[in-house]
Structures are given as C-alpha cells and as structure tokens.
Amino acid sequence: MVKPANEPAIVTVEAGLRKIAQECGVGEFLGSEDVLRQRLGCSRNTLRQAARLLERDGVIRVKRGINGGYFGSRLTTSDVEDVVSGYLETLDMRMDDVTVVTSVLWVEVLRKASSTKSPESREMAAKYKKKLKTLKDTATFADIRKFEMETRREIFTIAKCPYIELIFNISARYSRSNYQDKIDLDATQEHRHFVQAWRDAKFMELTAIGESDPELGTMAARHIRAIWHHRLWGFLELQPETA
C-alpha cells in the first residue's frame, strides 16, 4: 500500500478523527475507512492506529465486517468515575486527603444549592425533611449512605454544577472502595451518636436549601462533612495525622 504524499502524523490524524466524532452523536455513522482516510489524508494503517487510540478513550466505536465502519461514542459519567477511581487505587493515597477534597467540594455545592430560590428547591427540602424524620437512631450506615446518595443527586441538580459533581463522585467512589465491608460499627454506641449528629446536620442542610440561606448552607455543609470525616476515620481505624 502506497502512503499518501506528506502523510500527517498520527497525532494529527487522531485529532482530526476526534473532531469528526465529537461533531456527531452517539452511534452516528462517521464513515467507512476509505471515506475517512481520504478526508484525513492518511494511509489505512495510520487511520487504524488513530482509531484504536480513540476507541480506547471511548470517543468512537469501530464495527468490523461488511456493514462495519466508524461510529460516534461517548464515555458515560459512570465510566469516567470507574476509570479515575481505579487509577487512584494505584497511587499511595491518604484516605483523609480524599475526604478533605470531597468536603471542600460539598461546601461549595451547598452554597450554590442554598442560594437557589425556586419552588423545586423548597419542595425537595420539604420532601426529604419529612423522610429524614423516619430515620431512627438504629439506622445502619448503609441506610444513611442510601439517604445521602439520594439527596446528593437532587442537590447537585439544584446547584447545577456537573463538573463539581463528577469530581466529588470520583472521590466518593474511591473512598467507598476502601471503607465498605471492612469494619462493622452499626451496633455500637459510637454509630448511634453518629446517626444522631448526622441527622441534625442533614436537617440543617435541607433547611438552608428550603429557606434559600447560603450562610446556613455553608455552615451546615462543613458540619456534616466533619461528622463524616470522624465516622470514616473510625471505620478505617485511621487518624488524620498518621493515616
């Protein structure tokens, strides 16, 4: 096979193919190899090398065979969270550093959410304050985490900060992989104190959102994250200065 004269470098072909894919929707046909090769001015081998890189990144999907070709694709948010949290597992990471990051992000999210004056935010706050009252002191850590994750999704929607949500969820997913199923403290008095403190702080968070009070929201977010810090360090039998 004769290579085109002055064939572009693979990084140039990759960038060109990426641009084509980003301009198309998920599952949309980008073109056959021959069409894309002519469009990008490269050889079949260079196009395939670039395609493999983009397929690995989830930007395109290559379908082989008679009716094959190149199709647009996108990584889902869950895919990104899985990949990055998996990468974090390879690093010598301090767990308390991860919880500090999530705490800083959560304070900003609550500030944004409690600055939103809308019927939706008031309705959300009222709904979950009602549900919160049904959680007893004997609620398990799994019960609390389920409630937290449910309300977080709604709060992120109100705050309209998808980038912060992505980074927060990556850190949270990494944390869960390290503390879940390691230590069972649900039957202890310490856990009961955690439930009581968390419930009060959560009520404060929801009140701040319902009443559109960003100062209260910021204070409540810092308070509830401090409670989570203590619970998670206890779960891992770690102390911040020695973890």
Query: Could you tell me how far the N terminus lies from the C terminus, measured between alpha carbons in angstroms?
Result: 59 Å
Helix-residue proportion: 55-70%
Which architecture name of the largest domain does CATH use? Up-down Bundle
The overall pLDDT, averaged over residues, is 86
Q: Could you tell me the radius of gyration in angstroms?
A: 24 Å
- Write the H/E string, N to C: HEHHEEHHHHHHH
What general form does the structure show? elongated
The CATH class of the largest domain, by name, is: Mainly Alpha
| Structural classification | mainly alpha
Explained architecture:
- This protein is mainly alpha-helical.
- It folds into 2 domains: 10-72, Winged helix-like DNA-binding domain superfamily/Winged helix DNA-binding domain (Arc Repressor Mutant, subunit A, Orthogonal Bundle); 77-236, Four Helix Bundle (Hemerythrin (Met), subunit A) (Up-down Bundle).
- The protein is built from 10 helices and 3 strands; from the N terminus they run αβααββααααααα.
- The protein has helices at residues 10-22, 33-40, 44-56, 77-88, 95-113, 119-132, 141-159, 162-179, 189-210, 214-236; strands at residues 29-31, 60-63, 69-72.
- The N and C termini lie far apart (59 Å).
- Residues 236-243 have low confidence and may be disordered.
